[in-house]
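As a next step, we paired sequence with C-alpha cells, yielding the entry below.
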Amino acid sequence: MNNWTAQIRVTLKPAVNDPQGLAIRGGLHQLGFGDVSSVRAGKFFDVHFSAPDRAAAEQQVSDMCRRVLANTVIEDYSFEVRESVEVAR
C-alpha cells in the first residue's frame, strides 16, 4: 500500500451565483483594489491517504469528491494526486 496526497479544489459552477465572491470583490474595492473585476470563492482540501497504486488513488479521490467534498449539482472539482513519503496525521 502506498501513501498519497491529493490536493482538491472545489468551485461553484460558472452559472451559479457566488454571493461570497461578490462580497469579497466589494471588500477589495473598498480597500483600493478597484481593478478587480470578479472573484469566485471555493474550497481547498489537502487529503492524505493510502491506496495500492495511482489509478486506485485517483478513483478514491474522485469518489470522495462526488460523495462528500463537492455538491456536483452546483460545484465542479479538480484534483492532483501525488505519491507521498508519509501520511500526515
